[in-house]
């Protein structure tokens, strides 16, 4: 059975929370699977995208986390704002402007959670030596969302070239390979 967006987002966000909270302090500057990005850069990017989503509701400004910010605290605040907006039927159905693809906030969060938070959760886990297992339901949703967009996601600073998966690769590995991750 398909998950509701708040439930799906909640699972992915809660997992990302665990990864941020459990990141060994000496691993934040370790390289991630994203070329040129550290573990800190990956987490800050996810926080920034959450802030951007919230700003899209009222067309306000947002900023990326500064190095001086407490990143776990910034994540908690941003993800709680997204959860609160998803619980609000008016905010959940606000049509976001063209920059977001002219979709509702709820649909943007569905896409953001699966194409950004989920995948970068794996990147953060890999960079910091944590458990890399992704939520199987979220992997299925991400695959459904991303595979039809194969041409659109291969732009600079997005997803890398596909990696050929092994014949017996599981769904998570196939998705990560599709997104250019070596597993």
Low-confidence segments = none
Distance between the termini: 28 Å
- Oligomeric state: single chain
Helix content estimate: 55-70%
The biggest beta sheet reads: none
Cα radius of gyration in angstroms: 16 Å
Number of helices: 7
Question: What is the average per-residue confidence, as pLDDT, rounded to a whole number?
Answer: 92
- Overall 3D form: globular
Number of strands: 0
Structural class: mainly alpha
**Order of helix and strand elements from N to C terminus:** HHHHHHH
Strand content: under 5%
What features would you describe in this structure?
The protein is an all-alpha fold. It is built from seven helices and no strands. Helix 1 (5-21) packs antiparallel against helix 3 (71-87). It is globular and about 45 Å long. The model has no long low-confidence stretch (mean pLDDT 92).
Brief synopsis:
The protein is globular. The protein has helices at 5-21, 39-58, 71-87, 89-92, 105-128, 136-146, 171-178.
Attribute tags:
single chain, 183 residues, mainly alpha, 7 helices
List the helices and strands and how they pair.
Blueprint: H1 5-21, H2 39-58, H3 71-87, H4 89-92, H5 105-128, H6 136-146, H7 171-178
Helix pairs in contact: 1-3, 1-5, 2-3, 2-5, 5-6
